[in-house]
Amino acid sequence: MIEIKDLQKHFGDNHVLRGITTTISEGEVVAVIGPSGGGKSTFLRCLNCLEDPDGGSILFQGEDLADMKVDINHHRENIGMVFQQFNLFAHKNVLKNITMAPLYHGKKKLKKAVFSAIINNICALFSSKKEKTPVPSYRKEMKALKEEIKQRGLDLLQKVGLSDKADAYPSTLSGGQKQRIAIARALAMQPKIMLFDEPTSALDPELVGEVLDVIKSLAQSGMTMVIVTHEMGFAREVASRVLFIADGIITEEGTPEELFGNPKHPRTKQFLKAVL
What we know:
The protein is 43% helix and 22% strand. The chain is an alpha/beta fold. The protein is built from nine helices and ten strands. Helix 3 runs parallel beside helix 5, helix 4 (138-159) packs across helix 5 (175-187) and helix 5 packs parallel to helix 6.
């Protein structure tokens, strides 16, 4: 699904990513571990161009996201992102937080379809083509779209165990609940891959489990995921592959059994000895 080749990123004189090369296959759950400052979050943010790479390529379904000519917003519709700090809209209730992006996207597509049909019919008046293109009823289609997206939002709330919070506001929620809402919001766009940037790092320890349980259920459903995490037990249990990133490179990668059970690189051994 994603092929990364020689990915480079600088922040001034700081060479953060020094040639990351790897692939992420459909249905894979890739855990990214390593020391703080090693480039893990920068790597993740480059995958949906929240950071512009300075070199290399990121091929997503055959298109290079690092190419400035590519419409990155189109591809972001298929790449869900969950951040450390939730980033919920405080002035909107939970259901509106979840449904706002798909509703905006749906409106945009509907307007484009209506406009395209009208233009085709105008062009038909001046050509030999007499057959008209049906013009969607904006009001009728919009009403149906709102209902569909509202139901999608309610279904996702049930999926993350927060069916009773549809009308609540973020300020009334715990950190774990906010992060579960952030996951539901990302899923509302029906992405093909989910990126998680240390999704439990801002949570109190007793709230970590409820968020990890939601991510585990996504893994079991076959969702393709890349997860930057400090939760070693979680990475070991859920990931199909683990990348160890330190000093801007993938120092070692393998299955959880290989990397945690028998690490090869001295830097990996040093890190795991310190955290396990």
